[in-house]
Amino acid sequence: MTTKREKTPRTLHQLEMSLHRASLALGRAQFSTRQAKKAEEKAKAAYRKAKGELWARMAAMQAGKAGE
Prior knowledge:
The chain is mainly α. The chain has one helix and no strands.
């Protein structure tokens, strides 16, 4: 059986430190989110570029076959 420990009220300093740690964690999460969004945008742009090049090549091949 465990004994129930009385919780002592946290001091002002402890509350300030908790707030500070939470603020740092929030900042890190926001930074990570921004980095992920940038990476996603780069990946989308690369995908669109490759898709456009592929379609252009396919269209050129079709035009070449039709011209023969």
